[in-house]
């Protein structure tokens, strides 16, 4: 994942929770009448910026620096009107993080400075920077080394609390695992979808505003914002912790409203808001495959890439003759054996790649590559700014039939799902009992 928020999250992925797992609406149990009078005013334009959580202060600087990480995760492309909503969500996240660190201290769970530093160093290396250079990079983005280390500490502490207070009480029987393996075998060849989700809760009275909020999020994602970053900040499903990643599921495993939509999406597409019990869902189709089947997009290719470049300021009319020469030259190819010779004649650059999977190519090229024979080339593609390219197929290693997840992998997935559900209840209890003063 390329987003900053993804790079700094170190928690092990937890199994997902679909909308169907959401708790039923509690308003009915409170017996709140529909016709009420509110005594006193609350100015909606006043935004509380800081808080004291059981005596621990969350400062404006804490919020600003964590918000800077979220903005960086979206490539800095966050509209001004979106920042205020993000700021409030960051405050809620910091409150939860504070509660988790406090609970770890109460349970005498310790995360040492050395452990935090080791993780910080690994994150820095993911950005191909030294720890010192990474600290400077964070400052340039408006964040700090201290902010990211606090997040690292909170996530590590919470994992250890769960390993002590939750995981020992979760058990999965062999019968449960074997039943899932049997269902997988029975579903061999069926479509399976890698899904991302964002769930926004709503009551009947707030459905309109929730729908409006969902459309704003979709608009930002379609403009290039990170789905994972928005899921972390706004989704109320448990998958928010892993950037909304629901994992690989079959359509029948999803609520009916979601399954009807996900089967109509192409890889990389995001849905419109979907009305579901308790609110709205936004789903993204990350990828698609067949259960225990052979997906031709898993084939590994041996490729040569030929590229022609254009000087800055070149117009489409000026570039067209050069592109035509390039297209004609591709017709002269006799496999990869003379690709370098052809490239030299037209001044094209050549790059070799022997580890490219078809599914890692842009969607527009995947179908083209699946149907190509060794020695053939793609049509020219690209742009004047980035150059016009063509791929020549030099070889293909087709994938072996999928064996499916192992017994241990399935057992671990079920365990993580149950741990995740209990963790959500655990955190709700901490919120309920917390003394929080907003300033």
TrEMBL record:
Keywords of the record: Isomerase, Rotamase, Signal
Residue intervals passing through the bilayer: none
Gene3D superfamilies hit by this protein: 3.10.50.40, Porin chaperone SurA, peptide-binding domain
Domain (PpiC) ranges: 190-287
GO molecular function: peptidyl-prolyl cis-trans isomerase activity
InterPro entries to which the protein is assigned, alphabetical: OMP_Chaperone_SurA, PPIase_dom_sf, PPIase_PpiC, Trigger_fact/SurA_dom_sf
Protein name, entry field: Parvulin-like PPIase
Native source organism of the sequence: Rhizorhabdus dicambivorans
């Amino acid at each position: 994942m390329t987003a900053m928020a993804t790079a700094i999250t170190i928690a092990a992925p937890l199994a997902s929770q679909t909308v169907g797992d959401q708790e039923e609406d509690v308003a009915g149990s409170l017996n709140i009448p529909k016709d009420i009078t509110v005594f006193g005013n609350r100015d909606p334009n006043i935004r509380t910026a800081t808080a004291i959580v059981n005596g621990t202060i969350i400062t404006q600087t804490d919020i600003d620096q964590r918000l800077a990480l979220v903005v960086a995760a979206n490539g800095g492309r966050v509209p001004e009107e979106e920042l205020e909503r993000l700021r409030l969500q960051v405050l809620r996240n910091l409150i939860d993080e504070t509660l988790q660190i406090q609970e770890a201290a109460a349970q005498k769970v310790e995360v040492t400075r050395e452990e935090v530093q080791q993780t910080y160093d690994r994150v820095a290396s993911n950005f191909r920077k030294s720890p010192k250079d990474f600290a400077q990079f964070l400052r340039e983005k408006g964040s700090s080394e201290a902010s990211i280390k606090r997040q690292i500490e909170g996530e590590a502490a919470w994992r250890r609390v769960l390993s002590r207070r939750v995981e020992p009480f979760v058990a999965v029987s062999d019968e449960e695992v074997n039943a899932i393996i049997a269902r997988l075998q029975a579903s061999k060849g069926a479509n399976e979808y890698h899904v991302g989700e964002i769930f926004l809760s709503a009551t009947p009275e707030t459905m309109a505003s929730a729908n409006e909020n969902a459309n704003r999020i979709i608009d930002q994602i379609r403009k290039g914002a990170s789905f994972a970053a928005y899921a972390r900040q706004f989704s109320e499903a448990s998958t928010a912790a892993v950037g909304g990643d629901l994992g690989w599921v079959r359509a029948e495993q999803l609520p009916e409203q979601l399954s009807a939509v996900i089967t109509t999406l192409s890889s990389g597409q995001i849905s419109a808001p979907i009305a579901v019990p308790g609110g709205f869902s936004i789903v993204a189709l990350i990828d698609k495959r067949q259960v225990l089947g052979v997906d031709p997009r898993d084939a590994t290719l041996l490729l040569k890439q030929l590229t022609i470049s254009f000087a800055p300021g070149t117009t489409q009319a000026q570039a067209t003759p050069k592109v035509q020469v390039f297209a004609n030259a591709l017709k002269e190819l006799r496999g990869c054996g003379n690709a370098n010779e052809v490239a030299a004649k037209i001044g094209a650059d050549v790059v070799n790649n022997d580890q490219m999977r078809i599914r890692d190519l842009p969607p527009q090229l995947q179908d083209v590559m699946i149907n190509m024979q060794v020695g053939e080339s793609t049509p020219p593609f690209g742009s004047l700014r980035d150059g016009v390219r063509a791929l020549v197929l030099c070889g293909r290693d087709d994938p072996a039939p999928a064996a499916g997840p192992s017994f241990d992998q399935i057992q671990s997935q079920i365990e993580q799902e149950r741990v995740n559900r209990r963790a959500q209840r655990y955190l709700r209890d901490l919120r309920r009992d917390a003394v929080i003063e907003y300033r």
